Amino acid sequence: MKTESKLQKLLDSGHFAVTAEIGPPKHASAHGIRHHAHMLKDYVDATNITDCQTAIVRLSSIASAVHILDCGLEPIVQMTCRDRNRIAIQSDLLGAYSLGVRNLLCLSGDHQKFGNEPSAKNVYDVDSIQLIYLMRRMRDEKMFFSGEPIKEHEPRFFIGAVANPFADPFEFRVARLEKKVEAGAEFIQTQCIFDMERFERFMEMVRERGIHERVHILAGVTPLKSWRAAKYLQTSVSGMIVPDDIVERLKKAEDPKREGIEICIEQIKHIRNIPGVHGVHIMAIAWEEVVPEIVERSGLFPRPKVE
């Protein structure tokens, strides 16, 4: 289904896409968001706006998206199932569309125990796969979740989802990805990739099922600032694989931040040669200023233009 999303037009045209990520602040000022949007707008095709990531109270992803749009950058609004029932989800997404948002990323959401309101109630009225399906139905069949018709303008989002190629059981990862595609996901962003060998095996299984022909896959990469950050991901984050050689390389580096950027650039160049991958999603966590260099040195600048 064609939408007004520039990201969709670029991917459908066969271009290798680049997306980034901006995390809204824990306060009511949009200055930082706008600063990062101006910094990124010539180097990425769209940017995710996270939705209270790690269950920490932050500026609304939809409000943040309006500021991003005003800066000339296309936002991808994340919508989690953790905090809203189906009434609130539909209301928020109608509002987001009316404000110019055209890309949607459907997520379950981090458990509230990880955030700054651990006693908050979670909702999970629908899960991420149900949300994908219901949003596709709102768009393609002009129907609310309840089955009631949408009498006027339906929200025509380019619908995305996430995939983790590394969580166990490994064989189930591709099956879960396929469920999201069958539900209506049109683009996929993966969790950050450090183990290239395992990611290549994942993509082999994706190609065997022909999934890469039905959805646009953007591989997630993250520049690491230190060996301690790498070690934390390796030992403390479920579903994350960081090879020992990356930890050691950062540990031995005279300038670990510079080494982290070099590793990220090498990873992107590797990913570009993997069949079935249609783009990269750069998650420079609280380090957005390095994204332009990474994009440029990876051979992905200037970005293509689409009408």
UniProtKB/TrEMBL annotation:
Catalytic activity: (6S)-5-methyl-5,6,7,8-tetrahydrofolate + NAD(+) = (6R)-5,10-methylene-5,6,7,8-tetrahydrofolate + NADH + H(+)
Pathway: One-carbon metabolism; tetrahydrofolate interconversion
UniProt keyword list: FAD, Flavoprotein, Oxidoreductase
Key word Iron present: no
SUPFAM superfamilies for the chain: FAD-linked oxidoreductase
One Gene Ontology term of the molecular function aspect: FAD binding
CDD domains xrefs: MTHFR
Domain of life: Bacteria
GO cellular component, one term: cytosol
Gene3D superfamilies in UniProt: 3.20.20.220
Cofactor(s) listed: FAD
KW Ligase (keyword) present: no
GO terms (BP aspect): methionine biosynthetic process; tetrahydrofolate interconversion
Family: Belongs to the methylenetetrahydrofolate reductase family.
Name the UniProt record assigns to this protein: Methylenetetrahydrofolate reductase
